[in-house]
Design brief:
The structure is a homodimer of 224-residue chains.
Chain A lengths: L8 H21 L6 H8 L3 H7 L3 H26 L3 H16 L3 H12 L13 H16 L7 H24 L6 H20 L6 H15 L1
Helix pairs in contact in A: 1-2, 1-4, 2-3, 4-5, 4-7, 5-9, 6-8, 7-8, 8-9
Chain A binds a DNA duplex (30 and 30 nucleotides) through helix 1 and helix 3.
Chain lengths: 224, 224
DNA sequence: GCTTCAACTTGAACATGTTCAAATCAAATC
DNA sequence: GATTTGATTTGAACATGTTCAAGTTGAAGC
């Protein structure tokens, strides 16, 4: 249960080697099939040592999640600095998500469920994983703000969080996708990103003004 | 792993007593805090006996889930045979969900995550839990079909499944709701059910015709 | 060089989900 | 009533996440 940041060179190296072993094994065998003993073995430390640096197996998953996010953020950087069209930015970002995660597809199910568990410290809605979630939301804020789309401020305010939620939905679909090359997920991404951009522009219609206000204030209330 | 339906009176009674013990303990202590040994103890059977009737602890949760659904279906029956207004039917049905589940609120998190786990046999998107999901979807089909709302057939086709998904979302929100009397969830239900009904009528607008077709055909494609 | 002390490491021990071979039971058959 | 046979029951054994008290290490202060 102790949250011990390494205080010595030796400690830092131990933590790093344990983490690397865990990332490798999660990717090779998945979450459940990776035992804490196997992680300790591959890292060349004792079982107890792992618990000195990571309070639980779930906390190691959080690091896995963070690692994936960093890969993703790096992958979309060129696109986000070049492209200005919102639909293209969003589509590219979503495609990059599933391309980045593709090596972990077989094991993603168990990892996703760990993260979605409301009673887990890893749940992004509140707890240890909150800072990481905020980073991902910030990425989507950049997707929006760096585009040349003119978006009403009330919508722009809620959009990043909504897109993060949307990404979660896409990932959940992708986990179940057994199609070759994950083509179905790619199609769904193309279609939904287009729809989202279209919906944003439709939201300016006078008939929709009322519902739009209600939806947005509801969302704001939900976020607290 | 064996799926053994009881073949004798004795077997039937054993299965029933184990199930009852499990339901009680889940409600009293939650999923994780309930051990298989505790279930066997309270049921007055040995540990191994439980595994003769239920392949795993998760399968006992499925029964818990089914039990809750039956309580809910019973609770909304009067409303559904009396009320004809769609918004009122939907609102009442959703309110009944969280009222029915209220006794399990403290333990709902761990149960929900078990069900949402894509690699679990309990996942409603495909596996053992599929029949139960179909029952819940059928309930929402009745909510729609028993109303006096005139709904275009392409929408009506996808609506029950969508409402089931919506119910899942509300439950997820409810799990995190710490407000007294779960008032916030009730407010969200009132607001969202209204919005849904409004959206259904808006979908007939000529401007929305295109998006509507695209959304519906996308949903149909996702369901397979 | 010696002492001290916090950081680090270790492996045994525990709790719990699951498996399984053996024992027990009870109904059908003779 | 004895035998057979399949259903049921049992508890020991195993795997694995987690805890913890005890041991080891190494640098700072003397």
């Amino acid at each position: 249960m102790a949250i011990a940041l390494p205080k010595t060179k030796r400690g830092e190296s131990s933590r790093a080697v344990i983490l690397q072993a865990a990332l490798d094994l999660f990717q090779e065998r998945g979450y459940e099939a990776t035992t804490m003993r196997a992680i300790a073995d591959r890292a060349g430390v004792s079982l107890g040592s792992s618990y000195h640096y990571f309070p639980s197996k779930e906390h190691l998953v959080l690091e896995f999640y963070r690692h994936t996010h960093e890969l993703h953020a790096e992958a979309v950087r060129p696109l986000l600095s070049r492209e200005r069209d919102l639909a293209a930015r969003l589509r590219g970002t979503m495609r990059a998500v599933i391309i980045t995660c593709e090596p972990f597809h077989a094991v993603a199910g168990s990892i996703f469920s760990t993260v979605a568990n409301p009673s887990s410290p890893l749940n992004p809605f509140g707890g240890t994983a909150r800072p990481l979630r905020d980073e991902v939301v910030a990425l989507y804020a950049e997707v929006v703000s760096g585009s040349d789309a003119r978006i009403a401020s009330d919508i722009a305010e809620m959009l990043p969080l909504t897109l993060w939620l949307y990404q979660m939905g896409i990932l959940y679909f992708w986990i179940f996708d057994r199609s070759p090359g994950r083509l179905r997920t790619l199609e769904v991404i193309d279609e939904t990103t287009d729809l989202i951009v279209r919906l944003i522009s439709l939201a300016n219609l006078p008939v929709l003004r009322g519902s739009r206000k209600r939806v947005l204030s509801l969302m704001k209330a939900i976020v607290e």
